[in-house]
Amino acid sequence: MTHSEQVLRSPREREAVNGAVRALRAAAPETWERLGLEFRATVGIDSATFEIVDTDGRTRTAMPPGQAVGRMDELRRAMYRRDKGAWFTARLSVERSGRFSAEFDYDTEPDFRPPLGPSAYRQDLDRFPRADEHIPGWLRAKLRQAGLFPAR
Questions:
Q1: Which domains does the chain have, with CATH numbers?
Q2: pLDDT tens, 28-83?
Q3: SS3 of 86, please?
Q4: Half-sphere exposure of 63 toward its Cβ, with a 13 Å CA cutoff?
Q5: What is this structure's pTM?
């Protein structure tokens, strides 16, 4: 399930998002119209894609700014919810006008290239525990491969 920015409940969460937005804006060329950051993470492993849409509508990718990546990592820790777990993928979209939106996906397997092995997800679950009802099928299968759940 993907959740929007309304779930930013604490000042720590809001400051992390605002810091990531500031870092993206600072790294953008003068001709930008819209910025997008997709951040995928587990404990100790992350990957980010930074997309820039110019005023002429041209889209390009760039190296994500390190400060934005660091802030997103902070945000993942800050947004962890007991039983629900931590999100795996976050998407920030920033408009030149200053408006931005954020979405957080707790349930879909993150699009790592190459895909992560089962032990990465087991380590993530150890750090960010989830109640059984918040473990999606793909994650349960990975955890089973890591020896956490018995085969049925």
A1: 2-113 (3.30.500.20)
A2: 999 999 999 999 999 999 999 999 999 999 999 999 999 999 999 999 999 999 99
A3: coil
A4: 3
A5: 0.90
